[in-house]
Design brief:
Blueprint: H1 3-14, E1 19-29, E2 38-41, E3 47-49, H2 56-70, E4 74-80, E5 83-92, E6 97-101, H3 107-116, E7 120-125, E8 141-144, H4 147-153, E9 160-164, H5 169-179, E10 186-189, H6 193-206, E11 217-218, H7 230-246, H8 253-259
Parallel strand pairs: 6-7, 6-9, 7-8, 9-10, 10-11
Antiparallel strand pairs: 1-2, 1-5, 2-3, 4-5
Helix pairs in contact: 3-7, 4-5
């Protein structure tokens, strides 16, 4: 493996990114010289190394991106008039990262559940009284730092899942503005239906943020399982994250409300 591929793999490791390692394992005809060639593909779309497959390369990279997104290995086979090739796409997976912004009552069971499903768990709060290892012994990192400044410089990628559950909705909104345009796989924000709607309308009006950008935000957060206490709310959030991560077919509450804004948030408890 040449230096450029090693550098790309080390860079991905430091950034905690999953990458795809592509190897030409069979090649005949016009592609014969490509046998054994390798390339590394990052989630950003950047690649290192040369496959030597000519015009076929772009198609290979496109299909490899799909494997990287699904986090599954794949054998790509191509039969062309002037030759054939097989490329093995090996996905070097990093554990997905769950960033819990806010160290309140919901954060503790959320961190526990995040570890149970093998996520790397990071808890962030600007209050050392709450953001500490004694309170979150299960977390991989507990950060007592300013919220927005930390998120602004955090290495967010497509394996990052962000949950905004701070002590005040104004803090959630400030943090949302920092991550809204990030490549995060999931952004969830706690709040009632009315409050979330009001926040989106305010940001659209005062910040000039295009309405469609909020479509990627899971708010109100979680699956509608009628959760009430912190542990139940954490279960609903983790269930939604698993649904996104594994490609499940359950409709998130936020998507259901976008399809029908008149839908009660919790039918048994009245319209929130």
């Amino acid at each position: 493996m040449n230096d450029s591929l090693i550098t790309a793999l080390l860079t991905a490791l430091e950034a905690k990114e999953s990458v795809a390692l592509l190897t030409v394992v069979q090649a005949n005809g016009a592609y014969a010289d490509a046998l054994g060639s390798r390339a590394v593909l990052r989630p950003t779309g950047d690649s290192a190394g040369k496959l030597g497959l000519g015009q076929l390369t772009e198609q290979v990279l496109t299909e490899a991106r799909q494997s990287l997104h699904s986090r599954r290995p794949r054998l790509l086979t191509y039969e062309e008039p002037d030759g054939s090739a097989q490329i093995f796409v090996e996905v070097q997976r990093q554990p997905p990262q769950l960033i819990i912004v806010g160290a309140g009552h919901v954060a503790r069971p959320l961190a526990e559940l995040g570890k149970l499903i093998d996520f790397e768990v990071v808890v962030l709060d600007d209050r050392p009284k709450y953001a500490n290892k004694q309170r979150f012994p299960m977390a991989d990192e507990v950060l007592a730092r300013p919220l927005t400044e930390t998120l602004r410089t955090w290495p967010i990628n497509t394996d990052t899942f962000i949950v905004l559950v701070t002590r005040g909705h104004s803090h959630d909104v400030e943090c949302l503005l920092e991550v809204l345009d990030s490549p995060a796989r999931y952004i969830g924000m706690i709040g009632s239906k009315r409050r979330v709607q009001a926040v989106f309308e305010l940001l659209e009006k005062e910040k000039g943020i295009a309405r469609h950008k909020f479509d990627r935000v899971y708010a109100p957060i979680g699956l509608d399982i009628g959760a009430q206490n912190p542990a139940e709310i954490a279960v609903s959030i983790i269930a939604e994250i698993i649904n996104i991560f594994r490609g499940g077919r359950t409709t998130s509450l936020s998507d259901a409300l976008r399809a029908d804004p008149r839908l009660p948030l919790h039918p048994n408890r009245g319209n929130d």
